[in-house]
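SEQUENCE AND FOLD
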Amino acid sequence: MTPIGQAVLREGAVRTGGLIAITALCLTICPAQARPAKCFTTDDGDFACDFQSTARDGSFRISARGKPTYLLNVDAPDTAYGFVNVGNRNTALPGRYLRSKTDPGCWINDLTSTKICAR
């Protein structure tokens, strides 16, 4: 093979390797795509929603047309802080949310006893 042909092959391998590395990095740090779920909140009752994992620690966001968007940010195992988004602003919810021992899809507020569930 000619030196030019070898250089072209090396350049193609470098581009392919770079693309694979970028793809792998995105898969580990890019947020997951939303997926359909069944949700429940004390304020809104049962509703169909979109569930989106926001971090590897179990943090997530649930949203649905006509409902507020809820975010739970896991702080420690089975403990999270909640936020609600109505419009363009996240508002902190009081207290902490603790994962339910009887229903792991639910988180219960330790001050208000309100629930946020996603299944």
Remarks:
- The longest strand covers residues 45-53.
